[in-house]
């Protein structure tokens, strides 16, 4: 599949006349929560030739391919991505620390990796994950059946909030890395590990008696993250300096793309 994905990325470059700077895995596979039938969520950042940017009209800044049974691919144009990085967009920050990388321009990746530390806003990311957890919990009340994936859709952002609160850094992608660091209750850890194993093996539903500790943990954490939210600082010292760094990165990459 890896070869197919790389070939597809090369085709996208030719068809859209772009240069892909970074492409990675996202979603359940990067979280360690995939099933045998999980599709591949591929996300990428790309840049156009210089002439594309010299226009009075705003051009489309995303590429979205039709979703197939096994593949979901989409990408952001570089300036869109950098504007979102300035806002500490958690989805982009997750992409930039993904383990499954299909392509990276080494210069671009080194520079953006430096800037992402400067751009990380604990408060913005905390509120993103807090709203995600609350929203997914509310959705779960309307879903028929006991779906394993719904539990993880709630638990992962809850643990991400706790990581930001305690560590003051951006949380790791992998779900069990969050669990190992943040959950002390060994019985709860075992219950979580069993649920992850069931998901990885293809199970889609659970029995209520098998997740009693998880259910209690979720309810406690949902209350706790709301209470802690007001204490999370932004951490951002100088947005003008951050913008200058992002501008310089864009200009450097654009120049390199023009001359290559």
Structure description:
- The structure is a single chain.
- The protein is of the alpha+beta class and 260 residues long.
- It has 2 domains: 2-119 and 236-259, 2-Layer Sandwich (Beta Polymerase, domain 2); 122-231.
- Helices cover 58% and strands 12% of the residues.
- It has helices spanning 2-16, 28-31, 50-53, 78-86, 90-95, 106-119, 122-140, 148-167, 175-182, 186-200, 212-228, 239-259; strands spanning 19-26, 40-47, 62-64, 71-77, 101-104.
- A 5-stranded mixed β-sheet has the order 3-4-2-1-5.
- A hairpin with a 6-residue loop joins β3 and β4.
- α7 (122-140) runs antiparallel to α8 (148-167) and α8 (148-167) crosses α11 (212-228).
- The longest helix has 21 residues, at 239-259.
- It is globular, with a radius of gyration of 20 Å.
What's the CATH architecture of the largest domain? Answer: 2-Layer Sandwich
Q: What is the averaged pLDDT score?
A: 93
Roughly what fraction of the amino acids lie in strands? 5-15%
Order of helices and strands: HEHEHEEHHEHHHHHHH
Ranges where pLDDT stays below 50 over 5 or more residues in a row are none
Tertiary shape: globular
Lateral arrangement of strands in the main beta sheet: 3-4-2-1-5
CATH topology of the largest domain: Beta Polymerase, domain 2
Number of helices: 12
Tell me the span between the first and last alpha carbons.
Answer: 29 Å
Describe the main β-sheet briefly.
5 strands, mixed
Number of DSSP strand runs: 5
Instruction: Write down the Rg.
Output: 20 Å
Helix content: 55-70%
